[in-house]
Amino acid sequence: MPSRRVAIQQLLFICAGAAVLPSCYRKEEKVSIPLTNIRVSGDQEKMLAELAETIIPKTDTPGAKDLSAHLFVLKMVDDCFPKEKQDKFILGMKEFETFAEKESGNAFAAGNAEQKQAVVSGIDGRKSREDNLSFFYQTVKQLTIQAYSSSQFYLTNIRHYKMIPGKYQGNVPLKAA
């Protein structure tokens, strides 16, 4: 017959397991990078990656998604934008998802390339530029281009950036210089 101490220990283990178990079954995916000021779901991150890929698609060179431009966008908004613009960005992201479903009939990330391009063209063709949706799209577009054009791939393979132009000569006599 087990002692009371053993029975209490087993009961505590069962209660602790029951308390931890719901966190193991969370269906919502987490974001790939830690964010402190904005809250974004895994589905929203995937949608943002698809939007970045629509802006700079993969061809014979990597696209924006391959270079993780969407993570750069999230990090810049989280770290560098004031609270009002962060809120406007998040509201615009939600409006973008609604707009994409209305335009194409399904979620943006689930659409094909033509549907995604039609959604983006629909936003570019709008007259209103001051609303949350336009702010979100223009911010994503600007930061995606910035992320791509400052990536290691772009600077070394397309622009052929050299850290120090010319030839390095470390030991030069003073008279020759």
Question: What would you note in describing this structure?
Answer:
This protein has 177 residues and is mainly alpha-helical. It has a domain at 53-158. It is built from seven helices and no strands. It has helices at residues 4-24, 42-55, 69-80, 83-104, 113-124, 132-149, 152-158. α3 (69-80) packs across α6 (132-149). The longest helix is centred in the middle third of the chain and has 22 residues, at 83-104. The radius of gyration is 25 Å and the shape is extended. The model has no long low-confidence stretch (mean pLDDT 85).
Number of H- or I-type helical stretches: 7
Residue runs with pLDDT of under 50 for 5 or more positions: none
Can you give the helix content as a percent range? 55-70%
Distance between the termini: 93 Å
What's the gyration radius in Å?
Answer: 25 Å
Largest sheet report: none
How are helices and strands ordered from N to C? HHHHHHH
The count of strands amounts to 0
Tell me the fraction of residues in β-strands, as a range: under 5%
- How would the global form be characterised? extended
The overall pLDDT average reads 85
Structural class: mainly alpha
Layout of helices and strands:
Layout: H1 4-24, H2 42-55, H3 69-80, H4 83-104, H5 113-124, H6 132-149, H7 152-158
Helix pairs in contact: 2-3, 2-5, 2-6, 3-6, 4-5, 4-6
List its salient traits.
177 residues
Question: Could you write a compact summary of the structure shown?
Answer:
With 177 residues, the protein is mainly alpha-helical.
